[in-house]
Structure to design on (83 residues):
């Protein structure tokens, strides 16, 4: 039984880490591309950059409610083990 709980916790942890990478990567990739190609400094690239930055930042912020849900499920699992 303990082995099954551990496998489930590891699977859930890997799933959450994958989700966080998916939500973080686009925003940080845009920041990296901006550092290399200076998108903000060109007049033709500023407006598209600002829109992409805003959308990808909202995507980045989506990870934080998911982390709280993940912690809530871990807490409920620990309460179930204590019973």
């Amino acid at each position: 039984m303990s082995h099954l709980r551990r496998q489930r916790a590891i699977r859930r942890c890997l799933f959450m880490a994958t989700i966080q990478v998916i939500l973080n990567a686009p925003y940080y990739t845009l920041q990296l591309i901006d550092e290399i190609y200076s998108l903000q400094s060109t007049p033709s690239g500023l407006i598209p950059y600002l829109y992409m930055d805003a959308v990808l930042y909202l995507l980045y912020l989506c990870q934080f409610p998911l982390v709280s849900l993940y912690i809530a499920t871990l807490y409920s699992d620990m309460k179930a083990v204590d019973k």
About this structure: The chain has a mean pLDDT of 88. The radius of gyration is 19 Å.
